[in-house]
Amino acid sequence: MRRFGRTLVTAALAVAVVGGTAGWASGESQEAVTGPPPGTAGWRAATASGRALPDPATATPREVARFFAGLDEAACRELLRDHPLVVGNLEGAPVPLRYEANRIAIAATGEARYASLAAPDRRILAFDPRGRGQVAEVFGDLEHAERVSVIVPGSDNDATTHDARRTPNTGPAGMARALREAAGGSAAVVAWTGYTTPVGVGMDAADGRLATAGAARLARFTAGLDAVGAPDPVLFCHSYGSVVCGLAARHTDASDIVAFGSPGMRAETAAGLRTGARVWVARGPSDWIADVPNVRLADIGHGADPTSAGFGARRVPAADVQGHTGYFMPGTQSLEAFAAIARGEAR
Length: 347
Prior knowledge:
Structural class: alpha/beta
Helix content: 25-40%
Number of strands: 12
Shape: globular
Radius of gyration: 20 Å
Order of helices and strands: HEHEEHHHHEEEHEEHHEHEEEH
Largest sheet: 8 strands, mixed
Number of helices: 11
Strand content: 5-15%
């Protein structure tokens, strides 16, 4: 009974720390965006060269890839013109076709907040305007990359803030640019803001509801990379994004999973993630995430501290990292180590 009482007290403390001094009011509850993209009903009713189109909700990315491999250019262009939102978000569809489809879909929204994403030099691999908006952007040449990394961000990220002009090398796009520059060579990096993230530090950040929905989307996204012949990715998972990665780990073909600034991965050990990927962790000395108690009661809290010796992950040096978002700052030990992992050179 005393142990149960201590658990309740610790869980309450976790809620207080994650929720902040303002309590749950400091975070706005979010409804997870799930399911196939907008326009799916029209897509299902259409055909291409007399063939039924793969159902975005049920077809595997490999089935989608085989379908597009059997189409001629004219049929692909027709689908692109008539169904840009579906083509742009269809895992397994040809990468260049998705870039073009998303440029069309973004422009069609007519919303100024998305306008910069439609620029000709941007490679937008996914775009979903529902809710706060989701986006995946490629830095480098995904079609010919020898190594691929995916940045999975945490709270307060969406299609609008994905590339906000804030402190350099933070945020999904900023982290991806920094890693791409540091890794060099034929590496490609995807900034994947592809799930509904928590806003602020309320209940959504303390429980696993949004992470569970995000994990399913991340697993499908990585299956899509595999279907178009991309190398097994390295997942770089920041803050609440590491909760997403922890839940998705056993459903992906990632070669490495790197959790940094993590509140927990919903597993008590690296082995508990049930993945063949190598698991790496990093936490800077001034990262406030260290103050979040690593407990889990029902769906509150995210479990063991991934940086603890008992968790069993490989440590990434981060002694010179400043704050919660400084892991990709040029010159830091963490960025140097991340680049080595991205290149497949770390041991």
